[in-house]
Design a protein that fits this description.
By secondary structure, this protein is of the alpha/beta class. It has a single domain, classed as 3-Layer(aba) Sandwich (Rossmann fold), CATH 3.40.50.720. The protein is about 40% helix and about 10% strand. The protein contains 8 helices and 7 strands. A 7-stranded parallel β-sheet has the order 3-2-1-4-5-6-7, sandwiched between helices. β5 (about 165-170), α5 (about 185-205) and β6 (about 210-215) form a beta-alpha-beta unit. α1 crosses α8. The longest helix is centred in the middle third of the chain and has 36 residues, at about 115-150. The radius of gyration is 19 Å and the shape is globular. The chain binds NADP nicotinamide-adenine-dinucleotide phosphate. NADP nicotinamide-adenine-dinucleotide phosphate binds near residues 42, 68, 126, 170 and 221.
Length: about 300
Amino acid sequence: MNTLDSFRLDHTRALITGASRGIGRAVALAFAQAGAQLALSARSEQALKATAEQVAALGASAVLVPGDLAVPDEPGWVVDEAARLLGGLDVVVHNAGILPSLPDGTPLLTPLQLLPQQAWDEVLAVNLNATAALCRHAHRHLATSAASAASAASGEARGTTRDTASLVLMSSLAGVIGTPMMEAYAASKAAQISLARSLAVGWARQGIRVNALCPGWTRTDMTAFAHTNGPLSDWLLAHVPLGRWADPEEVAAAALFLASPAAGYLTGQALLLDGGVSVPDGGLSGIPKPPSPFGPA
Ligand SMILES: NC(=O)c1ccc[n+]([C@@H]2O[C@H](COP(=O)([O-])OP(=O)(O)OC[C@H]3O[C@@H](n4cnc5c(N)ncnc54)[C@H](OP(=O)(O)O)[C@@H]3O)[C@@H](O)[C@H]2O)c1
């Protein structure tokens, strides 16, 4: 396969959760450009329709599978309905996720000792329990896809083709580094990385690759509390060697790589896309670090 062609997703049926805005919408548009047939999920059907219109403008098609992943039976329904509408699933990008928040939607950034149990439960319900349920239901469809790809690759034994099914879990830098005041979120994101590793090993011989993608600070609604607050944004960026926010399109490009045959030999990895935050510099970079606007932890 031509190297550039290996980044394409022609004839690939892909479910993307959290596709109504932010990173998920950017993933949908990148996959549309790469030729995928899409199923888009999130709670807001109206916003999903807007994403689908942008997908259509790129010459691709999308079906909508609205659902609230915090409701116990919804992740399974979303996966099975997406597979029904697309005639199967070759790729799943599970991207929907939340920070703890107040009833008005404002992020609740507070140390664990002050975080109400209900806020912990809400975050874990979406970021971890729904992830597990979604993976559990996706397995059957991805295994079917991989088996038919292997039998179509005449003469090749299963596991020798690059044409694997792929599951990408949208984790976070927060799942890798210490993240005070976001402990529930960070723990849920670390669990997604662990799940990706375990599933990658367990499902490898079934032709299913599983990876976690771990973005750093990315400019979306989720991080508006920070990128619209000059002093807070400046302080955060002082800890980012590349010195800027990531754009959702940059995260989408990495998701496309992980989902595509270009990453055919890559499984069980947590890909850090963080502008260098996770690289210890021992203070040698010389980048000045202003005092925390939150004060000492
Ligand atoms: N932005 C960052 O800096 C950053 C960094 C690292 C990792 N991430 C991860 O990247 C993913 C996307 O983040 P983002 O920044 O694009 O966030 P965002 O702009 O807040 O978008 C979140 C997406 O998840 C959906 N969603 C939220 N709760 C849901 C639920 N209960 N059921 C179904 N869908 C739900 C939202 O759609 P509806 O509201 O319509 O349901 C929306 O499409 C998340 O998993 C996040 O943890 C983000």
